């Protein structure tokens, strides 16, 4: 229910002042998600996999992670989609660890790292903050996730 | 830099004392129609001048990076239950990076457009263009970040925003004397490919015993997962699955208690 706290906090005038926000007095309350935008979304790519191929060719570091108890964009969806890239495996599938616990599983491909976060929902850092921070540190350092 | 100073956050209501700097405000991305995107920068807690710049985007489409990324995921603060103040997130990603939360596109959160019709015809294309303009102009406002390593991160529908912005940056860099030092992207539970996402989603529902064999077979046989818009029959199958077979669960975390 934490987004309810945001709906209250960010509509407080003193918070908006401190954030230099809402200076044009937008004619609607601040909200976590805009129904209007969502229902009237004009154009959407059927697939962004072609962009992945461009980014891999450009040498960008690409990490894709998945909280494995999310059913909205679940881990199976991500695996089916990434499989279409047909990437060669660089480091085979292994469990990665934080604090001696399996944080999830990962496979390093040529050009892309895939990692799951065990027991995390759609908002991975909300449900598994320690594991998410480890994931981020490994990503920023450009190193594979810890094997122990 | 006056603009930067004008954006400095002295302190948020109910905020604990912190050592890192914060800035927030607007960057106009389209002067002609008056479209401006809102950002919140929480600098790294240690050695901000040498840490990378990490842009975080939430998806939706239409959802706010301030509401989710900053306030309940990777940001340095959490909002307390009474919304009277903030407390520290000990696993914040600003322990190792400068975090830039961007509310995009206009219409999301505090980001706005003076042309109200913009809220009814925005999509992937305008979002990528405006987010690129934001980044270029934001770096002009914060010149110490020019040349700094930049990473784009996000989740959910930002599985579109992040690669599309990365592609826009790569194109910009190929024509610019001052390229943006984009090093990589990281996305989570990311919307990626219509067909395979949809196929994977109903397969996950079935393999996690959330739907019946019958519903699974009907979804697979009735829905054309390549289409943007589901047919009415397909739509009603999804509704049946969610309303009749899922029960009262939080679809975003199937083992967590739902927020009633």
SSE topology:
The complex is a heterodimer of chains A (148) and B (260).
Chain A lengths: L1 H8 L3 H6 L16 H5 L9 H9 L3 E7 L7 H9 L5 E10 L2 E9 L2 E6 L6 H4 L1 H13 L7
Parallel strand pairs in A: 1-4
Antiparallel strand pairs in A: 2-3, 3-4
Chain B lengths: L1 H6 L14 E9 L4 E8 L10 E5 L8 H8 L3 E3 L6 E3 L9 E6 L8 E2 L10 H18 L8 E6 L2 H18 L6 E7 L5 H14 L5 H10 L9 H15 L14
Parallel strand pairs in B: 3-6, 3-8, 8-9
Antiparallel strand pairs in B: 1-2, 2-6, 2-7, 4-5
Describe it for me?
The complex is a heterodimer of chains A (148) and B (260). Chain A has 148 residues and is an alpha+beta fold. Helices cover 36% and strands 22% of the residues of chain A. Chain A is built from 7 helices and 4 strands. In chain A, strands 1-4-3-2 form a 4-stranded mixed sheet, sandwiched between helices. The longest helix of chain A has 13 residues, at 129-141. The two termini of chain A are 34 Å apart. The model of chain A has no long low-confidence stretch (mean pLDDT 97). Chain B is α/β, with parallel strands linked by helices and 260 residues long. Chain B has helices at 2-7, 66-73, 124-141, 158-175, 194-207, 213-222, 232-246, and strands spanning 22-30, 35-42, 53-57, 77-79, 86-88, 98-103, 112-113, 150-155, 182-188. In chain B, the strands form 2 sheets. In chain B, strands 1, 2, 3, 6, 7, 8 and 9 form a 7-stranded mixed sheet that branches. In chain B, β8, α4 and β9 form a beta-alpha-beta unit. In chain B, α3 (124-141) crosses α4, α5 (194-207) runs antiparallel to α6 and α6 (213-222) packs antiparallel against α7. The longest helix of chain B is centred in the middle third of the chain and has 18 residues, at 124-141. Chain B starts with a helix and ends in a 14-residue tail after the last helix. The model of chain B has no long low-confidence stretch (mean pLDDT 97). The interface between A and B is large, with 90 and 102 residues. β1 (61-67) of chain A pairs parallel with β9 of chain B.
